[in-house]
From TrEMBL:
Source organism of this protein record: Physcomitrium patens (Spreading-leaved earth moss)
Fe2OG dioxygenase domain segment(s): 246-335
Family per similarity comment: Belongs to the iron/ascorbate-dependent oxidoreductase family.
Keyword RNA-binding annotated: no
Gene Ontology molecular functions: metal ion binding; oxidoreductase activity
Name of the protein described by the UniProt record: Fe2OG dioxygenase domain-containing protein
UniProt cross-references to InterPro entries, sorted A to Z: DIOX_N, IPNS-like_FE2OG_OXY, IPNS-like_sf, Iron_ascorbate_oxido_reductase, Oxoglu/Fe-dep_dioxygenase_dom
């Protein structure tokens, strides 16, 4: 029976710069077990649609990570005592000033303790998320030679974007991941590589769904920045001023993790922190995302109509600096 594949579209916003906690993504199992020796020939028909196996050795040894980095918790083990907190953003749309203030403080508390938060009632319609995810699946289901038409050449202004780009992180082993990414703002550059991959009709449908989804995430990101400032006791526009009314510098990325026979020996994406301001992640029903809190890896269970927000290195520094400023101002008033 086919194994479902995790799909993690994400939206990265930068001012341009370590979140309190690391995170990683596990690859789903495909029937083989730790230590089993095989040429994994049974996998190849499933993975041939990605660029993972291009040039790979017969035993896939380059995907095997050092033992101390092997996942100790399965991608679908959600029985940990701790669970990533969820914040309800209903008050953003129809709450009182008091309830908005309470939500802002809860958001700051969660960011300071976890670096991550799950949000519900975030204003992004279910149908928009589902359409985006369906379009992402359509893309990764294409034959490899078709997707490779969306690879940006080294001489292109889009170098580093398009299909099959590297993860941007350097690990002890090769990550089990396939991806597509494009610059979203200040100038949207999704259509050029997509039009090389799809027919005109399919390219329009794909681009429109991604643009609709990301446009809504732009609004959500600004609301999160405003709430965080409010939760720190600062003017609500503290963190959005540098954007001067724009969406800032954003990247739209789709990560795909095919079924893997080495799931106990490798990772879809290794432990890391994001260098940007915010990452907003939509996780498909398969799961795979794990966050590390106090040295323990915790699998994040996918939930319908839920988005995951991760503060990046830049925002951690911004929050810390702003908190110190707020604290000292308060102390000055008290003296």
């Amino acid at each position: 029976m086919p194994v479902a594949q995790p799909l993690h579209p994400s939206h990265h916003k930068s001012l341009m710069h370590e979140a309190p906690n690391h995170f990683r993504t596990l690859a789903p199992r495909n029937g083989l077990h730790r230590g089993q020796s095989d040429n994994y020939s049974g996998l190849r028909p499933e993975a041939v649609k990605s660029n993972l196996l291009r040039g790979a050795s017969a035993d896939l040894s380059e995907f095997i990570w050092p033992k101390d980095q092997w996942p100790s918790v399965s991608h679908n083990d959600f029985h940990m005592a701790q669970e990533l907190p969820t914040v309800d953003l209903s008050d953003l749309h129809h709450g009182s000033e008091e309830s908005r203030e309470a939500t802002a403080k809860l958001l700051v508390k969660t960011f300071s303790e976890w670096g991550f938060v799950q949000v519900i009632n975030h204003g992004v319609p279910t149908e928009v998320i589902e359409k985006m995810q369906n379009q992402a699946r359509n893309f990764f289901d294409l034959p490899l030679e078709q997707k490779e038409k969306g690879v940006a050449s080294s001489t292109s202004k889009h170098e580093g974007f398009g299909y099959g780009v590297e993860s941007g992180f350097y690990y002890a082993g090769k990550p089990w991941i396939d991806r597509f990414q494009c610059r979203w703002s200040p100038v949207c550059e999704i259509r050029e590589p997509v039009e090389k991959v799809f027919s005109p009709t399919d390219a329009e449908e794909f681009s429109t769904s991604i643009e609709d989804y990301n446009g809504r995430l732009d609004k959500l990101a600004m609301q999160i920045l405003e709430l965080t400032a409010q939760g720190l006791g600062l003017p609500s526009d503290t963190f959005i001023k540098p954007f001067n009314g724009t969406a800032g510098d954003c990247i739209a990325r789709m990560n795909y993790y095919p079924p893997c026979p080495l799931s106990s020996l490798t990772l879809g994406l290794g432990a890391h922190t994001d260098p940007n301001l915010l990452t907003i992640l939509s996780q498909c029903k398969v799961g795979g995302l794990q966050v590390c809190k106090n040295g323990t890896w915790i699998s994040v269970k996918p939930k319908p109509d839920t988005l995951i927000i991760n503060i990046g290195d830049t925002f951690e520094v911004e929050m810390l600096a702003s908190f110190c400023y707020s604290f000292h101002v308060s102390q000055g008033r008290m003296m």
